[in-house]
Amino acid sequence: MTHFLNQQPLSPKLPKVLIVDDDVFMRTLLRTQLEAAQYEVIEVKDGQQCLEAYQQYRPDIVLMDAQMPEMDGFTCCSKLKQLPNGIHTPVLMVTGLDDAASVNLAFEVDATDYITKPINPSVLLGRLQRILQATRAEAALRKQHASLQAELHQAAKYVRTLLPEPYQEKVIINRQFQPSLQLGGDALDYYWLDDDNLAIYLVDVAGHGIKSALLSVSVLNILRTKSLPQADFFLPSSVLNGLNQVFQMSDLGEDYFTMWYGIYNYRNRQLTYASAGHPPALLISSGSQSSVKQLDTGGIPIGMFPEFDFEDGSQNVDANTYLYIFSDGVYEISQPQGHIWGLDNFVNLLKDYQQSDINNLSYVFSKVQDVNGESSLEDDFSLIEVVLT
After folding, report:
1. Which end of the chain offers a freer environment for a tag, N or C, measured as fewer CB atoms within 10 Å?
2. How far apart are the C-alpha atoms of 314 and 273, rounded to whole Å?
3. How far from the centroid of its chain's Cα atoms is residue 227's Cα?
4. pLDDT digits (tens, 9 = 90+) for 121-138
5. 381 by DSSP, 3-state: which?
6. Residues of the chain with pLDDT under 50
7. Cβ–Cβ under 8 Å, residues 45 and 22
8. Which of 317, 232, 239 is CA-nearest to residue 283?
9. Is residue 297 within 8 Å of residue 312, measured between CB atoms?
């Protein structure tokens, strides 16, 4: 281990300053001023010692002379920023150079600030205090952000555990769910109410984050346990009306959601459905000349107005017809010049997919990712495919 100049054991309570200067007089002057102001000081004479001392002591801030032999301060600062956590360690350049080119170069290598010789002690101490306060605030924000991301990750994992598995009895059901980085408020489910009637629905809560996710999970649990007073779960409009009585938008304009709810009668091959401000479900017939029907009853989002009366729609279904239910996150993809990719393009993608030999919804997701230009989407990607055989 390198022995650094005049180094005594450090106190864990005082901020640590690493002085880097080849001038022994300047180091002594800075050490005297800083120790008088209750800073712990690590003192080195060149750039290489600076990099070694940084890794050993993890200083809170570095005072760096710009002009040093062998490795100047600009090069040393650049190398320090590449070390673990170096990008978050402030560097204050201390130099006699006051020309614009040196100032620009200091900031190009990510120096935090720049002070010129001769050094005014009050200016130096004030600058150090300001930089350290800003650095601590930034560190607190990073910690808070990391904690939030961890919570969002756990919430996303929890939502995934609630999703139903693909199904292959009587009908074939597949689903693709990919939460956004911000964690949206999508939830989906499907299950048999009895031997003949299959319930299928998708919920999309306004906004992002844990609050939206918890609201969608609450809706899912209410429907799974059938704990919605006076609702007829075989009648989609009755379910939406019941939810609209239980969930109402907050005074801040939050806590509302869109929904598509359908009941497929396997024996009669009839699909009854109702929508609440949700994108239309799609019925796509199989074959080379496929047709597309949009299933939408024109309702408003749940929670907007408690007096709103939702209506049902119905559709007889031919054999080997594909039903697709999705949230708006699958097609509201931002494009250059402010355009949105849009529902029509997504419908065409589904038609091409349905007519292909591919039998995996991850293909559809990958195509939407290609349109997005990034692997993560701005909103949840939720898609249910039901093959009504």
Report:
1. N
2. 6
3. 32
4. 999 999 999 999 999 999
5. strand
6. 1
7. yes
8. 317
9. yes
